[in-house]
Amino acid sequence: MSRSPRIAERAGPLSGITVVEIGGAVAEHAGLYLAELGALVIKVEPHTGARSRAVGPYAGMAAGQTPTSLAFWARNVAKLSVRLDVNQNDGAQVLRRLVEQADVVLEGRDDVRLLSGIMSEHVADWNQQAIHCVISPFGEDSPWSDKPWSELTALALGGIAGVSGYGADEILDGYALPIAPAGVHGASMGGALAVIGTIAELLERKQHKQPRPVEVALHDAIAVSTEFAVPSWSFGEAEVDRHTGRHATVGDSPIWNLLCGDGRYLCAIPLYMNDKRFAQLLAWLSSEGCQDDLGEERFSDQLVREAEMQHIMEVVGTMTARHTADDVFHAAQARGLAWAPILSPDELVTDGYLRERGFYADLNTKFGQVSFPGVPYKGMDSVYNTEGVDLAPPELGEDSHEVLKWLGYSTAEIQSLVQVGAV
Amino acid sequence: MSEMADTAEIAQSAAQPLKGVRVLDFTWNVAGPTCTRILAALGAEVIKVEYPTMPDPGRRLGGVAAGFFANVNLGKESITINAKSDAGRQLMERLIAKSDLVVESFSAGTLEAWGFPYEKLIALSPHVIYVSVTGFGHTTSFRKYVTYGPTAQAYSGLTYSSGLPGRPPAGWGYSHLDVFTGYITAMATLAAIYDVKYRGGGPRRVDMSQVENGVSLQGDLLIDAQVNGTASRRGGFPPGNRAIWPGDTASGGARGEIGAPYGIYKTAGKSKDSFCAIAVLTDQEWVRLRNCLGSPAWAMAERLNRASGRLAEQELLDERIGQWTAQHEKYELMDLLTAAGVRCGAVQSGRDRLESDPSLLARGVFPQLDLPEIGKFRFEAIPVRIGGEFVVPQPTWPVLGNDTGTVLQKVLGLNEEEIERLHDEGVTWPIGG
Fold first, then answer.
1. What DSSP designation does A165 have?
2. CB–CB of B154 and A223 under 8 A?
C-alpha cells in the first residue's frame, strides 16, 4: 500500500505538536487520544512489532496471508509507524534524533521493558523542552513496581471487577461472580489521564517554564475511578455490595435491566423516580393494562415507592416483555424516562443515532472501507477533519523512510541503517 | 497520621497550568463535575452555579455517600443565582462576560431556554470555550433524550460486553461512562484551552456525547463485525472473565490480550471480594503457574504446553485452578504467583484499596484533607503526577451559596450593599429561604 506523504498538517486543537510513542497498551491509548486531537504521533515499534499487533481479533486469516490485528487497528488510527531496534546503537541514535524533534515523548513501561531504561535516562539530555510522560503499571516508586500485570489483573486490583458482575440474585457454583468487563478499559483510562497531564504540561511550557515529567500509574488511575466504592468506606466505613447488571450499593437495590419481547434487555433505570415521572409511568402502564396494584394511593408517596421499587420494576417487566426493546426505549424517552436498550457492539455499526451524529470515521483499508470509531465530541475539529492525509492504521514500519528523511537522513544513510538492521 | 504529614499532603499541588482561567460551572451529578474537578485541581478558578430550589442532585445523596459530593467537587466555589429571574439572568450575563469557559451538563436546550445559546455566550465572551456533556450530544434527533451513566452504557454496548454467555448482562457496578467521560471531557477541554490560547483564539465548542464515548471503547469489536462479519449475539460472547470463551471460533478476543488460563477465581475467605485474577499470556507463564501448583499430573499433559491446547481445555484448567485457589487467601496467592512471574491480582474492594494496598498507600493516592463542615477524611487525588507530585485539589468544596458574596465582589466588583440587595430580592437566595 503506497500512500501520499503522511507528515502533514492535521486538523485538531493540537495540530503542530509532534509526539513520539514507545511502549505498551496504555501509551498506545494515550498516543491515540493525542493523534485524534491533531498531534503528529510517531509510533516506534520493535522489529517484531507492537505487542498489540499480535492480539486478535484478526483479519486476513486465509492461507498465505499475514493476519492483521484489528485490536491494533482500533488504537493506532492516524499514527505513523517507525520500525526501530533501539537496543543497538544506530537505532538508539535514530531514536535520539526523533526525541530531539518531539514536543512529547510517551514512554510506556506497562509492557516488557524493552529499553532497559534508555529513555528515562536520556530524554531530558536529548531534548530539554520535550514533555516526557512515563506510564507504568504501578509507578516506579511503588512496592509493587516489579509485579507482572495484565489488563485483567489491573481491573481486579483497581476495583472494577469487585463492584461489577453478578450478585445474590445470580448465584453460580455457590457464589456471586465478579466480572471484569470485556474491552481494554484499564489502558484507556490510564491513557486519558496521561494525556490530561501531558496537555497540562504543554500549557506550562508555553508559560516559559521548563516542562516537568508527567507520570501515570495505571493502578492509581483505576483505583480512584469506581465512584462510590472508595468514598463509601472512606466516609462511612461501609462496603458496597455487588448486584447483577447495576450499581454496587450498600445493601440491596431494585433490578433495572428488564427482558423485552424481542429477547433484548433494556436498562430501565428507576433512579430519581419523582411524582411527575411516576405519574407518567403509571399512565403508560395503565394504557397497556399492566399497572397491577401500582394505582393504589400509597404509591403516590415517594418513600413507599422507593421501598417497593423491586415490585414496581417487576410490574414494569410485564409490560416490557410485550414489546421490543427499541419500542420501549422511544416510548419511555417520550415520557422523560432515562431508559435505553442494551445494544450489542455489532448493532452499533449501523445505528441510526451514531450515523446521524456523524460519529464514525470511514477510512479506506486493505479490507475495503471500514467505519472506525471517531471522537466523542462535536463542535471542535479532530484529526478526522483532515483533508488529503490517509489516516488508516500503519503497517509495521510503513513510515520509517518518510520519517527518517524528515529527520534529515540521506537515502544512503537510510540504506545503511536498514543494512545493519537498525531500521 | 501526624499533623506534619497532613500539611505536606494538602499542600497546594505544584502544577498550576490553568492559573488565571475562570470556569463557570453548571454541571451536575458525576460526569461534568469530574471534568471541572480536574480543571480546578490544575489551577482553574471554578465557580459552581446553582440555586437552592434546584441544586445539583448530588447534594441530596445521603448516608455514607454524603462525602461523595464533596470529593467530586473538590476545589470549587459555590454561587447561587436564580436563572428564572430577569435579575438573575443579568447577573449571569455579567459573569459569563468575565469567564473563559462555560461548562454544563443539562439536557440539551436548557441553557438556550435560559437565554444563553452558544451565540449569546460568544457575544458576551468572544473567546469563550463552551463545553456541554450529555448522553447523546446536542446535534441529533436524540438531543432531547435523557440519560444517566447506566443508560449510556446500555446504548453504547458496554453493558452487553460485560457478563457470562447465556446469562443476563453483568454490566458495570458504577457509572463508568460518568467517570470516563469526565476524563475525556477534561482532556478535550484542555486541548481546546491550548488551541484558544496559543493557536489563534476562540471561541470553541465541545459537545460531548457519553454514548459515543462508550462506543469509542469498542473499536476491536466494531471493526471485527465489519471486516469479518462477526455477530456479537452468539454463544461464546461476552466471554465472562476469559479472554476467549472455549469453542468460540468467531472471537479473536476483546481485551487486548489473549491467554489461558485466564479468569477470576474464588479464594479462601468469606468476603464478596475473596477472589483473585490470574492471566497466563505465554507458554512460559504457564510453566511458572504449573510449578506454583506443584506440578500435578493433570497439568503436565503435553497438549497444555501450547496456547491452543490450553484455550481448548479452559473448563478443566479453571476447575482445577479454582480448587487450588480456594485453599489460599487472595493476597497470599498474589504474592506467591507474582513472585514466580505469573500475572495475578487480588479482587479489591473500596476498603482493600484504602487500607490493604501497599502501592496506593506508599504513593499517597488517597490524601487526607480537612474540609469545612465535613472534617478530615481521605479523598481521591487526580491520578497524575507532574514533576513528581500528584495533582491534588484544594481542600475546599462548594458549600451551597457560601462563596456568592466573594465571587460577586472579586469578579464583578460589587460592594457589600449591592450583594445584600441581590440576596434580599431573591436573586441569589430564595426570599425567606
1. B
2. no
Cis before A341? omega within 30: no
Q: What is the pLDDT of residue B43?
A: 95
Q: Which amino acid is at B422?
A: L
Query: How many C-beta neighbours within 10 Å does residue A150 have?
Result: 27
Q: Give rounded-to-5 percent helix, strand, coil for chain B.
A: 40, 15, 45
In the structure grid, which three cell numbers stand for residue B107, read together? 439536557
Q: What is the predicted pLDDT for the residue at A2?
A: 60
Write out the residue range of the structural domain in which residue B108 sits.
3-216+363-424
What is the predicted pLDDT for the residue at A117? Answer: 56
Query: Which tens digits make up the pLDDT trace of B71-123?
Result: 999 999 999 999 999 999 999 999 999 999 999 999 999 999 999 999 999 99
Domain boundaries, given as residue ranges, for chain A: 18-225+352-419, 252-259+265-342
In this predicted structure, the answer to whether residue B342 has a pLDDT above a threshold of 80 is yes
Cβ separation B191–A37 shorter than 8 A: yes
What is the pLDDT, as a whole number, of residue B15?
66
Residue listed under C-alpha cell 422523560: A336
Q: Does A273 reach chain B within 8 Å, measured CB to CB?
A: no
In a domain, B304, yes or no: yes
The whole-chain average pLDDT of chain B stands at 93
State whether B385 and A214 contact (CB < 8 Å).
Answer: yes
The pLDDT of residue A109: 84
The 10 Å CB-count burial string (b at 16+, else e) for A38-76 is bbbbbbbbbeebbbbbebbbbbeeeeeeeebbbbbbbbb
Third-level CATH fold of A18-225+352-419: Rossmann fold (3.40.50)
Q: Is the pTM of this model over 0.95?
A: yes
Q: How far apart are the first and last CA of chain A?
A: 19
